[in-house]
Amino acid sequence: MKLMRILAVVLILLGISSLFYHSFSYTTSRQTAEIGSLELSVKETEQFSVPAWLGWMLIASGCCLLLIPRRS
């Protein structure tokens, strides 16, 4: 049952962090053209938005896992 508690705490921490950080951005690089020794590449910044309801659901599921009674 120790694994269930660890999973519950991880879910709660993920939920709290998703409420504080609403979006995450990352950079992707792709090669667009290569002419002889000349190489052209493009770096694009992508943004991933995390909805608030997902954070609340993570927190609620973590709390539910903490409240589940242990089997003996």
Overview of the structural elements:
There is one protein chain. Helix 1 (2-20) packs antiparallel against helix 2 (52-67). The protein is built from two helices and two strands. It has a two-stranded antiparallel sheet. The mean pLDDT is 88. The protein is an alpha+beta fold. 49% of the residues lie in helices and 35% in strands.
Structure described in brief:
This protein has two helices and two strands. It has 72 residues and is α+β, with helices and mostly antiparallel strands.
Please tally the β strands and state the result: 2
Helical segment count? 2
Rg to the nearest angstrom? 21 Å
Strand order of the largest sheet: 1-2
State mean pLDDT (0 to 100 scale).
88
Taking the alpha carbons of the first and last residues, their distance comes to 10 Å
> Mind summarizing the main beta sheet?
2 strands, antiparallel
Q: Approximately how much beta-strand content do the residues carry? A: 25-35%
User: Low-confidence spans: pLDDT under 50, at least 5 residues?
Assistant: none
Helix percent reads: 40-55%
Shape: elongated
Structural class: alpha+beta
Q: How do the helices and strands follow one another from N- to C-terminus?
A: HEEH
